[in-house]
Amino acid sequence: MQLAQKYGPVFSLRRGSERMVFVAGYKMVKEALVSQLDNFVDRPIVPLFHVVLQGLGISMSNGYLWKKQRKFANTHLRYFGEGQKSLEKCIEVECNFLCEAFKEEQGKPFNPHYIMTNAVGNIISSVVFGHRFEYSDPSFRKILELDNDALLLAGSAQAQLYDAFPGLMKYLPGPHQTVHANYREIMTFLNREIEKHQEEWNPDDPRDFIDAYLSEMEKKKEDPHAGFNTETLLACTLDLIEAGTETSSTTLRWALVFMINYPEIQG
């Protein structure tokens, strides 16, 4: 706000080789995000994550590709999950599994972090993969741990420096290298799930998001700019798993801590 007071509601700064434009104040923010939305809808390239997603998927893409991928995701998330009684039933079943997992601790102190993350992850997994993962599944547990570590490390000073000086930082050790290594392992796991779907795929009976995407790939062969291919499917799958897991899990863990600290609200 001090810079805005000195230089005005629209000003720019350089971060390494990148010029960043800042917009401050209600009037200018409304102008950018409402009046001229079409001119400001694109996302900037974030080098730390561009290495992983290559400008594909939903969260890091732009233009025509982004519009097509977002529309497809919205349509099929509604079809396979959002607003459907089938998803509500899935949540109820997962709640039962979660409660049983808590009971197995027999009142002893334990860290519910990954049990709750697994439970939340199973909801989006049922939509994307068509199945859930047992809490004892070591491969899915590993993926949750890798993703959690990557998101924490992405906020570190060295990882932020990577965004400013990617050409230099890619040669240096640091948490940014761990972020990339973690995502490579996560992508390998997701790719195995996609390959299983490709082997079992029946275009007349789509079971989940991946099946529907494979069908769309066949339909959109004549429109390569829409980006319906296995690389974009992999990026979209990562986007959906991350968006449907970490945020909700963090919110639920916060609610759990809140209820522990204020037990009177549990009644």
UniProtKB/TrEMBL annotation:
One term under GO cellular component: endoplasmic reticulum membrane
UniProt cofactor(s): heme
Main location: endoplasmic reticulum
Keywords: Endoplasmic reticulum, Heme, Iron, Membrane, Metal-binding, Microsome, Monooxygenase, Oxidoreductase
A GO molecular-function annotation: iron ion binding
Subcellular location: Endoplasmic reticulum membrane; Microsome membrane
Family recorded in the similarity comment: Belongs to the cytochrome P450 family.
Alphabetical list of PANTHER family matching this protein: CYTOCHROME P450 508A4-RELATED, CYTOCHROME P450-RELATED
UniProt-recorded name of the protein: Cytochrome P450, family 2, subfamily AD, polypeptide 6
